[in-house]
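Entry type: protein chain
Record version: 2
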Amino acid sequence: KKAVSPIIATLILIIITILAGIIVYFYVAGYLSGAGSQPKISLSGGANAPGSGTIIFLSVHIKNDGTVPLTIPTTAGAIRADFVGVSLSTAAGSCTVIAGLSGTCTNTATPPFTSVTLTSALTLNPGESAGITLRIVATSSAQGRNVVVTVNANTPQGGTLTNQISLTISS
């Protein structure tokens, strides 16, 4: 009868044991790294300027896609919209929060951006979301131009998480 030699059988068992150990190591290492806190914020939205294009409606949806709570502070600029090729009015009432989160906003002419200050800090737990819609007055048509919205959120570890979305202003 032919059989596998005891030395070959021992080598095969050692190789199988080593491979099993490597697989278990990578599984546990991946599991443990995923168990930590992972802050992540996603943004979506839209912008349009109907009619003559001088009134811009900017809507932003903010979602916590991470595993820890995130807080959007009340500091000016925690939510900011930078406009490309658009001149903004800086007159009183040229920017108003019309839906969603409560707060105030102001326009700055150079460089053209809108800064939002929330009335109270917003904490988004994992999976939660919130939205805000702004009415912004431009001095010329904004149709076809771009706006980059930036949201800054504070993490439980004391850091700041930033995300941006670029939108084209439609008519």
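Comment: The two ends are 85 Å apart (CA to CA).
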